[in-house]
Amino acid sequence: MTLTWSLNWPIMKLGLKYAYPLRFTADRLALSSPIVLAYRYIRGRRNGEFRFAVDGSTAALIVYSLIVSMQFALSGLGLNYQGGGLSAVLTYTQPMIVFVLAIIFLGEKLLLSRLIGTLIGFLGVAILLAGGHTLTVSSASLLLLSGAFLWAVSTIYYKLRLRWVDPLLTNFVQTSISSIVLYAVSLSIEPPPVINIEYISILVYSGPIAVGVGATIWLILLRRIDASVLSSSSLIVPLIAIISSHLMLGEEINLRTIIGSILILGGVYLVNYNYGRSESRSKPLRGIFKEWMLNRRMRCNGNQIS
What pLDDT was estimated at residue 232? Predict the structure, then answer.
C-alpha cells in the first residue's frame, strides 16, 4: 500500500497533463469502482454469499463518501498547481490531525513514544515543507492541507461508524459516489481530457491499483490498528514520493530533503515501537505523570523525616 500510494503522486502529476483535476480524479475513481465490485462478487461467490447489506450503515456510508469526494477534489486541485513530492508532504500532515482527533473521539492512549515519534516525524515534514521557494502558504498548499484535514476526518468517522462494514463494500460505495459527485461538477466547468494510451495507462494505475487495491488495504488495516498508528506509519509515503518524483519528474532533492526524510523515518519507528507490546510495557503519558508525582511526593516525605 505504501509503495503504491508513493508512486501514485508523480503518476497523478503526469495524468494532469491530459485532464483537468476534477475530471482526472473522477475518471480514476470511476475506473476503480467496477474492479472493486467485481472482486467482491468473485469473493462472495467463493464464500457462498454476495450481499449488499450494510446493517443500517447506509446513511453513514453516504456521509463518509461525501467527505472522501471533497478530499479527493481538494487534493486533485492542489496537486495541479504543486509538485508531486511537496503535494505528498502536505497531504501527509494528515497523521498529525488524526493523532489529535483519535485521542479526543476514539479514546486512544497518548503513549509517550507515539507523541515523540509524531513530533519528530512532523518536524521532518516541516523541514521538507520549508524547502519550497517561498514560506508563504499558497492557494495550492491550502487546498492540499484542507484535503489532509478531510482525510483525517474521514479516518476518524470510519473508525466510529463504519469499521464493521466490509471494506470492499465501503470502497465500492465511496468510489462510486465520489465519481458521480466529481463528474457532476467537472462536466459543467472543465473541458474533456485528451484520451490516449498514456492517459489510460495512468488511469489504470491511479484508479484500480492505487484506489481499488490501496484504499481497500487501508480500510482493512484501519479496522484492526489504532488510527494514529496507521496514519503515522504512512508518513513514509511522502519520502518515497519525493524520490519517485525526482526520478520521474526531475524534481529536486537537496540536503534539506535528506534531513527531513531521516526524521520522518525515525518518527515512524518510534510511533510503531510500542505497537503489539503488552499494556504493562506501554505507558501512557498520564501514567508517567502519576508515577513522577508519586516519586516526588516520596522524596519530599523522605526529606521531612530526615
Answer: 65
On whether residue 296 sits in a domain, the answer given is no
The answer to whether position 288 is within a domain reads: no
In a domain, 298, yes or no: no
pLDDT digits (tens, 9 = 90+) for 182-223: 999 999 999 999 999 999 999 999 999 999 888 888 888 878
pTM, two decimals, is 0.79
Indicate if the pLDDT at residue 263 is higher than 80: yes
DSSP per-residue letters across the chain = -HHHHHHHHHHHHHHTTTS-HHHHHHHHHHHHHHHHHHHHHHHHHHHT------TT-HHHHHHHHHHHHHHHHHHHHHHHTS-HHHHHHHHTTHHHHHHHHIIIII----BHHHHHHHHHHHHHHHHHHTTSS-SSPPHHHHHHHHHHHHHHHHHHHHHHHTTTS-HHHHHHHHHHHHHHHHHHHHHHHSPPP---HHHHHHHHIIIIIIIIIIHHHHHHHHHHS-HHHHHHHTTHHHHHHHHHHHHHH-----HHHHHHHHHHHHHHHHHHHTTTS-GGGS-BHHHHHHHHHHHHHHHHHHHHH-
Domains: count for the chain: 1
In a domain, 293, yes or no: no
**Model confidence band, residue 78 (pLDDT cutoffs 50, 70, 90):** very high
The domain containing residue 200 runs over which residues?
Answer: 2-281
